[in-house]
Amino acid sequence: MATARKPGPRRKSARRPAAPARSPLVRICLAVLAVSALTIGVLASFVPETFYEDYPFFSSWVHLLPPYNEHLIRDGGGLYLGFGLLFAWSLIRPSVELIVPVCIAWALAQVLHFAFHIDHLEGFTTTDSIAQTIGLAAFVVLALIPVAALKPK
User: Which tens digit of pLDDT belongs to each residue from 30-70?
Assistant: First the structure.
């Protein structure tokens, strides 16, 4: 004689739908931001003169700006390393509660960074001015995409 199964809690299915924080678009943005921030952070923190003279490596734009200051470059590098760590952490342990504030904080810092550079294009070729402006704008946009994607509906 078969016994009736007792009602109990339902088992969760083995495959659960992807949470918004795990969406490919959000993860790609976080990965690009993590790699970019960590690259800049490592260079500025550990080889500040090289960062100043040669970054980015295809154009060497940093040396066109105000005079070299090792202390400020290393401080900026440390901040980039901190953001890079948080972006990497967001990839490993994605949650809206982590991703949104990190991306908003990054976007704020990058808008201020962008504004400085827009006002200091002297010495840049037209091509370098356009490339730098697009690159800096991309940092802002890449941070705002996850914020928009994770916005409550």
Answer: 999 999 999 999 999 999 999 999 888 777 888 888 899 99
CA–CA dist 118, 132 (Å, integer):
9
Spatial distance between the Cα atoms of 123 and 64, rounded to a whole number of angstroms: 6
pLDDT at 34: 98
b/e per residue 6-30 (b: at least 16 CB within 10 A): eeeeeeeeeeeeeebbeeeebbebb
d(CA 13, CA 15): 5
Neighbours of 125 (CB within 10 A): 11
**What's the pLDDT tens digit per position in 81-99?**
999 999 999 999 999 999 9
**Token pair for residue 4?**
């009736």
Q: Check if the beta carbon of residue 125 is closer than 8 Å to that of residue 75.
A: no
**Cα 145 from chain centroid (whole Å):** 11
For the cut 50, the answer to whether the pLDDT of residue 13 exceeds it is: no
